[in-house]
Automatic annotation (TrEMBL):
One cellular component term from this protein's GO annotations in UniProt: endoplasmic reticulum membrane
Position of the signal peptide: 1-37
Protein name, as recorded: DnaJ homolog subfamily C member 25
Annotated J domain residues: 48-121
UniProt cross-references to Pfam families, sorted A to Z: DnaJ (PF00226)
Membrane topology reported for the UniProt record: Multi-pass membrane protein
Length: 357
């Protein structure tokens, strides 16, 4: 009776001894951080960022900042002085230690970066995912991309505005030198009495040069008010700037969709006849001209297009052929073109000549 009981007690004691021996091995994965998670090139490399600062994983931001300041003062290259425990440490190694401390602090002070680092410690097997998160955060621009785009668009819009104003003023200055427009503007200025005001004498007597400049400005202002310049030299409009074009893009898109649906319904489904606006639109598309280019054409040219019914494809092909033939005749009779063809035939760039020495 006593023997079986003794055997049972012995077995229980042996089991307890085995449990005591195995328990440290079971606690190792729970207490120790996985060393294989620390990879050279990521964060603090093969060193644990928490161990570098001497804090635990549950440390607060204030504790991390305090530990960093203490270590930074100790290892800063300009202030480093060897302490009793640093006999074998050189200034070079102190500088490396300072950089490691700074890297650890940069890693742990940011909540998102710290979260990625903790995840790497807990999931060492996700090797490529850690590389992606690390470098995506490092290479992501610090400034919001939307702000950069907005500033760029505003800068381009300002440049557009002043560039267009410069072109417009150049066009006005040129028109002021053309006799046809200058004479008409001068007659209008005389009828309105503007030139007499410029030549008034009195207390504020002006020099001849000042009077000349004022008369020139009066003529230019009359030309501006009476002439509608189209094309690339037209008066700049705020709505034509890139910024406002982007803002109004949804409106323009909805308008185009509504216009296209109305076109399909009226002319393809119901079979209505084209109006003048629709005919000019088809002609412009056939000529592959932009709206601004087509609007810059003279009114009599547009009337000619309508009279010849160029919105009809067959008529436009005939007109196109006539224009090509006319261009060929002009070039054939042009003296400069003749000289160019003669030069290309006799001394063109593709001819080889051999000169006897």
């Amino acid at each position: 009776m006593a023997a079986p009981q003794a055997r049972r007690w012995g077995a229980a004691a042996a089991g307890r001894r085995r449990l005591v021996l195995l328990s440290p091995l079971l606690l190792v994965p729970l207490l120790a951080r996985p060393a294989e998670a620390l990879v050279e090139g990521l964060y603090c490399g093969t060193r644990d960022c928490y161990a570098v600062l001497g804090v635990s994983r549950s440390a607060s931001k204030a504790e991390i900042a305090r530990a960093y300041r203490q270590l930074a003062r100790r290892y800063h290259p300009d202030r480093y002085r060897p302490e009793p425990g640093d006999e074998g440490q050189s200034p070079r190694s102190a500088e490396e230690a300072f950089l490691l401390v700074a890297t650890a602090y940069e890693t742990l002070k940011d909540e998102e970066t710290r979260k990625d680092y903790d995840y790497m410690l807990d999931h060492p097997e996700e090797y490529y995912s850690h590389y992606y998160h690390y470098y995506s955060r490092r290479l992501t621009p610090k400034v919001d991309v939307r702000i950069v785009i907005l500033v760029s668009v505003c800068a381009i819009s300002v440049f557009q505005f002043f560039s267009w104003w410069n072109s417009y003023n150049k066009a006005i200055s040129y028109l002021a030198t053309v006799p046809k427009y200058r004479i008409q503007a001068t007659e209008i200025a005389k009828q309105q009495g503007l030139l007499k005001k410029a030549k008034e004498k009195g207390r504020n007597k002006k020099s001849k040069e000042e009077i000349r400049d004022e008369e020139e400005n009066i003529i230019k202002n009359i030309i501006k008010s009476k002439i509608d310049i189209k094309g690339g030299y037209q008066k700049p409009q705020i709505r034509d700037l890139l910024l406002f074009q982007i803002i109004l893009a949804p409106f323009h898109l909805c308008s185009y969709i509504a216009w296209y649906c109305r076109w399909i319904y009226n002319f393809n489904i119901k079979g209505k006849e084209y109006g003048e606006e629709e005919r000019l639109y088809i002609i412009r598309k056939s000529m592959k001209m932009s709206k601004s280019q087509f609007d810059s054409l003279e009114d009599h040219q547009k009337e000619t297009f309508l009279k010849r019914e160029l919105w009809i494809k067959e008529n436009y092909e005939v007109y196109k052929q006539e224009q090509e033939e006319e261009l060929k005749k002009k070039l054939a009779n042009d003296p400069r073109w003749k000289r160019y063809r003669r030069w290309m035939k006799n001394e063109g760039p593709g001819r080889l000549t051999f000169v006897d020495d």
